[in-house]
Amino acid sequence: MPVNPQRFLADLHALRSIGADGPGVVRPAFTEADIEARKWLIAQIEEIGLTPHIDPLGDVFGLADGRGLLLGSHTDSQPEGGWLDGAFGTIAALEVARAVMEDGGPPVSIVSFQDEEGRFGGLTGSTVWSGAVSLEDADTRVDSTGVTLADARRAFSGDTWVDPDRFTGFIEPHIEQGPVLDTAGEAVAIVDAIVGAREITIAFSGQQNHAGTTPMPLRRDAVQGFVAFATALNERMETLRGDRTVWTIGEVSVTPNASSIVPGSATFSVQWRDPDDDRLAAIEEAVQELAKETATARDLDLETSRYWALPPTQMDPELVARLDAAAEDVAPGQWRRLPSGALHDAMNVARLMPAAMLFVPSINGISHDFAEDTAEEHLVAGLNVLAKAVLG
Amino acid sequence: MPVNPQRFLADLHALRSIGADGPGVVRPAFTEADIEARKWLIAQIEEIGLTPHIDPLGDVFGLADGRGLLLGSHTDSQPEGGWLDGAFGTIAALEVARAVMEDGGPPVSIVSFQDEEGRFGGLTGSTVWSGAVSLEDADTRVDSTGVTLADARRAFSGDTWVDPDRFTGFIEPHIEQGPVLDTAGEAVAIVDAIVGAREITIAFSGQQNHAGTTPMPLRRDAVQGFVAFATALNERMETLRGDRTVWTIGEVSVTPNASSIVPGSATFSVQWRDPDDDRLAAIEEAVQELAKETATARDLDLETSRYWALPPTQMDPELVARLDAAAEDVAPGQWRRLPSGALHDAMNVARLMPAAMLFVPSINGISHDFAEDTAEEHLVAGLNVLAKAVLG
User: Fold this and answer.
1) CA-to-CA distance for A216 and A51, rounded, in angstroms?
2) CA closest to A307 among chain B residues
3) Residues B235-248: tens digit of each pLDDT
4) pLDDT beyond 70 at B1
5) Could you say which DSSP state residue B81 is in?
6) Is B140 left (phi over 0), alpha (psi -120 to 50) or beta?
């Protein structure tokens, strides 16, 4: 393999030192540390002989002369981020491009997208580059302190966009950010889809009442409505779910939320994810139906609001096949296909060109946390799978 | 019947005008309006020929010369209170005492306890009078603005306590504050017990995780633990419950409470009430057992804290029998026995002497609200039942 694992790990640790906080990093988009990391990346790009390019959103490209694959991920982090989230994919791309520049091979360009982690909404750089949102609209977004994207990007941005037609496809290596590979003791996953997700907010309203003087049959208890709905949904999911379906009730709020008062209202989120859009739709139908049934049976008022829906993104079969073969070569029997349950820039880039991803394990599934980590052998296995898929 | 319903209603409305706010009243303990109401009551007591007495807690008594029954309730209100809560019982007592002073009969004394509604904890006057809490301890209690009871009671209090041995028993008329009588279309209830209550706070802790990347079998979801517990408790209650058992999950809090995060912890109250202390204990055992079973089955950590337990108070059988007979006389077939699901001063007074209560309906079960009301015919029925039980 022409890539150099020691050099790759050294670069990963060099990037880790920028915005370091204990074992983790603090590099939200357009902060001083983020910009320092992007400038450091540009220096590496120049050193290996690619042409650096900063686009209006602050995405950093390292462009090869010829038309070929684009590899990469992001170098910004969560406010309290792990050292590998985005960095692993960006530095693996850098190492593969460097190997090509040194030893020859097909043209390989690299990228670090800006604001993947969501200071201004999430996947911001790739969203605007892919045309899903205009720069004008994105510019009006504000972060949690009221700063607009337009103001923030003044500190680090260029004038021109990179033409996507330069690229034949995109591969994004990333940490899994979930427990599947770590639990199975496997080295790599090839991502065949980024799951779609839908979320609904449901509010049951009954009658707030004295918890001592209101007999059970005369109650219209919103929390009991919530419990009945959640139980019915679990039962229905036994037949509706696929292998990869997940559903989550993550947010619950009760009014007046006092132990001696029969609760008058309960509002809660229901979110579900799956690689198959038809299944997402079937679940939505079930959720709506069960909410109505519960409300009717318990004389509760029902309000539902559809918060968001994101269709699944299928990865490119040809790129996936190349990655499969490379994984079987590098880690025989130690890899699997896996849909991504989290969103990634590859979802946006798939609008422009064939796209695929590979995952390496997250120890204990931990991510978005200073404790995020991956065994070195798995980082290197991921690098080698990428190199093999790109270089053959 | 020697009592005068028109005079009784006129007095009720006179009291309603003190601290009036729309149809409701604002007379929390030791506020200007509360003190004005107590002074007004003292004037009525003097006018009918009883001896007024203010004790150190601000309880107002109207004392008859001989040993006999004590009748009454309270004249303080919730911060946004209904016009009948406490007032009905106090003015019904006043009217019965006046009838005795005018027409002869057994000695009847009356009382308005202080701070039934809980500016300083609830049932404060009767709690201290009954010896359950010392005046010194009560004095250190603070209201929601930081004022101590010791400071507040300086505005209205006397030097000496009334000797409970003056009284042969206590009857407290009150509004039901629940929907049972109103739903049944009945006029009066005779209270045979004030239910006991127990409350436990349960906290399930699992593992906070990404709602997209964490497969269902690898989740330790605290909200799903809560749902499973609540469902199991409902099922178990089908065999454990009595006719009068109620149970309530009124307070639920989830961490981190975000729709895209598998919830790491769920903390919730479980409260149950029943007139039978053995049943309260059996339910507590079931609650503890089901919480443990749920935690074990779902790999959740469990913490329970016993928040409070209050034993049931049985009303005096002889007084209850007198009230039963009076109710059947005044409202034949239009009354029932009912345990009180709410706490009342009669619970404390029962430590000192035989005690009983009667209820009149609350329209739509509404109380602790400006909209609280009772049909005049039912207010008068309650007065007549009290008069009949006391005077024969």
Assistant:
1) 73
2) B259
3) 999 999 999 999 99
4) no
5) B
6) alpha
| Three-class DSSP category at B286 | helix
Using the beta-carbon criterion (under 8 Å), do A246 and B368 form an inter-chain contact? Answer: no
Q: Peptide bond before B256: cis, by omega within 30 degrees of 0?
A: yes
Q: DSSP label at B64?
A: -
User: Buried b / exposed e across B352-391, counting CB within 10 Å, b at 16+?
Assistant: bbbbbbbbbbbbebbbbbbebbbeeebbbbbbbbbbbbbb
Domains defined along chain A, listed by start: 5-195+313-391 (3.40.630.10), 196-310 (3.30.70.360)
Closest CB to B365 among A177, A199, A209: A209
End-to-end CA distance of chain A: 9
Q: What angle do CA A359, A360, A365 make, to 5 degrees?
A: 100
Q: What angle do CA B67, B72, B78 make, to 5 degrees?
A: 150
pLDDT of residue B2 exceeding 90, the answer is no
CB atoms within 10 A of CB B131: 12
8 A C-beta contact, residue A340 and residue A191: yes
Phi/psi at B81 (nearest 5 deg)? Answer: -105, 165
C-alpha closest to that of B349 among B107, B140, B120, B162: B162
Strand partners, A25: A20, A81
Maximum pairwise Cα distance, chain A:
82
Contact call for B210 and A368, based on CB within 8 A? yes
Say what percent of chain A tops pLDDT 90.
Answer: 94
Distance between CA atoms of residues A132 and A57, nearest Å? 14
CA distance A136 to chain B (A): 28
Residue B61 tokens, joined: 């008594």
Mean pLDDT within B192-221: 94
Per-residue pLDDT band at A1 (split at 50, 70, 90): low
> Residue B306's pLDDT band (boundaries 50, 70, 90)?
confident
Average pLDDT of the segment spanning A184-194: 97
In chain B, the N- to C-terminal Cα span, in Å, equals 9
Question: How many other C-beta atoms lie within 10 A of the C-beta of residue B82?
Answer: 26
What's the pLDDT score for residue B392?
86
The proportion of chain B whose per-residue pLDDT surpasses 70, expressed as a percent, equals: 100
The answer for residues whose C-beta is within 8 angstroms of residue B332's C-beta and 6 or more apart is none
Q: Is-contact A327 A207, C-beta < 8 A?
A: no
Which DSSP letter does residue A203 get?
Answer: E
Residue B325: the pLDDT is 98
The values of phi and psi at residue B125, to 5°, are -60, -50
| Distance, CA of A153 to CA of B266 (rounded, Å) | 40
Residue of A nearest to B241 (CA): A216
Token representation of residue A374: 């991956």
Instruction: Using CB atoms, pick whichever of B211, B213, B263 lies closest to residue A176.
Output: B213
Q: Looking at the predicted structure, is the pLDDT value of residue B129 above 70?
A: yes
| Mean pLDDT over each residue of chain A, to the nearest integer | 96
Full-model pTM: 0.87
Q: What is the pLDDT of residue A89?
A: 98
Q: How far apart are CA B175 and CA B188, in angstroms?
A: 9
Contact between chains at A212 and B273 (C-beta distance less than 8 A): yes
Q: Got the DSSP string for A264-280?
A: SEEEEEEEEEES-HHHH
What 3-state class would DSSP assign to A143?
coil
> Tens of pLDDT along A305-362?
977 888 999 999 999 999 999 999 999 999 999 999 999 999 999 999 999 999 999 9
pLDDT band at A275 (very low <50, low <70, confident <90, very high): very high
Which amino acid is residue A351, in one-letter code?
Answer: R
- Identity at A31, one-letter amino acid code: T
pLDDT for the residue numbered A7: 97
- CB B174, CB B367: distance < 8 Å: no
Chain A closest CA to B9's CA: distance in Å? Answer: 26
